[in-house]
Amino acid sequence: MATAIVPRRRRRTKIVATVGPASNSADMLFDLFQAGVDVFRLNFSHGTHDDHRAAMAAIRAVEKKTGRPIGVLADVQGPKLRVGRFRGGHVDLMAGQEFRLDLSNQPGDVRRVELPHPEIIAVAGIGTHLLLDDGKIRLEVTRRRDDHLETRCLNAGRLSDRKGVNVPGVLLPIPALTPKDIADIAVALEIGVDYVGLSFVQRREDVLQAREIVGDRAWLMTKIEKPQALADLEEILRISDAVMVARGDLGVELPPEDVPLAQKRIVRMAQGMGLPVIVATQMLESMITSPAPTRAEASDVATAVFDGADAVMLSAETAAGQYPREAVRMMDRIVARVEQDEGWKTVSAASRPEPEHVAAGAIASASRQVAETIGAKAIAAFSQSGSSALRVSRERPAVPVLGLTPVLATARRLALVWGIHAVQVEEVHSMTEAVAKAAQLARREGFAQRGEEIVVVAGVPFGKTGATNALRVAGVGRNAAES
Length: 483
Fold this sequence. Notes:
The chain has 17 helices and 21 strands. It has helices at 26-35, 49-66, 118-123, 179-191, 204-214, 227-231, 233-238, 247-253, 259-273, 295-307, 316-319, 324-339, 342-350, 359-374, 387-394, 408-414, 431-444; strands at 14-19, 39-43, 71-75, 90-93, 98-102, 112-114, 129-132, 137-145, 148-153, 157-160, 165-166, 195-198, 219-224, 242-246, 277-280, 311-314, 379-382, 401-405, 420-424, 453-458, 470-475. The radius of gyration is 24 Å and the shape is elongated.
C-alpha cells in the first residue's frame, strides 16, 4: 500500500540517475524519485555486490512506499583496457619521445609501461593511434613486435597508474563480457534488475553472448561507445531491447565533431525500431561541484529531448556529486520546459517514423490518430510483455500513454519508455473489462475526468504476448456497456 504521494510526471522524456556514495541512502533515493528519477542505474564498475544488493533493497522500498513501478539498470563494466603501474605512480611524457608498451608486469617508467592486453599488440599496425587516459595522451605505433609496441608520443602530458586505453578504428578480438561481467550479471539477475547494460559492444555476437546468459529475465541495453558498433548498428539494435548513446568512450574514439551526428543517428534508428534509447554522459557534469549547470549543458539536455530520446541520464552528478537532488530537479525542469515548446511539438511530429507494416503497428498508429482527432486525454495500452505500449510510444502521440500490465517486471521496464505512465493492474479477460479498467485508471491517475474520452488498445485474446489487434474509444465515467 502506498504511503507517500508522488505527483505523476508532467513530461514524456524520462530521467535515469546513477546510484553511488552520494545517493545510496534510503532517504536520498526517495528524494531523488520525488524530484523526478524514473530509473536508477547501478554501476557495476564500482562498489561491491553487497553494495548493489543494499541499493536495490532501498529502491524497492521506495517503490513500495510510493506505489509506483521503478526501473533499475545494471550497467556492467565490460573489457576495460588499462596500462600497468609506474614506480612513482605517474610519469610526465614529452611530445615526440619514444615510449614502449609491453607485456612485462614490472613497474613502468618514463620509457615504458605494461600493456597487459596482448590482443592490442596483435592487431595494432604501424600508424595505429592509442589513446590513453580518455585521450589526454596520444601515441602512434612506430614498430610492432610479438611482445611489445614501440610508439611515439604525439603530445605531452602526465600518465598515471592504470589509466584506460582506447584503440579507435581497430576491431579488437576480445569478448564484450569478462569473467567479472558474468559474475556481476548473475548478481544483477539475482536481485531482480530490469535492464542489463552491455559495455563496449563491437558486434552483434557480443549481444548474442549476453542474451544466452540473461535470457528473458531482463531487457538487454546495448551501450554504443565503440565506432565499430556504428558500422554494424542496425544488426546490433535488431537483437537488443534498448540502447544507450554512451558518449564517454564514444567521444574519445570518434572525432568530437562526429559525436553529435552519431547521437542523432542512433536515436533515430532506435526510435524507428521502437527501442527505448538513453542519451548519457556529461549532461550536467558541472553540477558535480556546482548547484547550477552551464548554459551549454542545459542546451545539451534540450538537444537530446529534441532528438527524440526516451531518457536522459545523470552519472557522477548523482553518484558522487555534491548536489544530487538539484541535478535531478534541474534535469526535470529543462526537459519539461522543452516539451512545452511549440517547436518541440512540431519537430516531434515531423520526426515520427513510418508505421510498421504489421497489424500491431497499424493499431498503434491508429490509436494516435484517433486520440488526436477526437481530443482524447490519453491512450491506454494493455500489454503482457510491454510490446503494445512500446508501439504506441514509438508513435510519439501528443497525449500521455497509460501502460497497463498485470506483470510487475513489465511495468518496471516501461518506466524507461517515452511518454508511458506504467501501472500494474489485475488480469483482464475481455475487451469490455479492459475498457472499463482503463477508464477507471485514467480517472484515478489524473489523466481524464468524467465525461472525457480515452483510446484503449489491446490484444485479443488477452494473455497472449505481442498480439495488439483491437482499438476502442472509451468515455470516462460511463459504465462499460456505454463505452
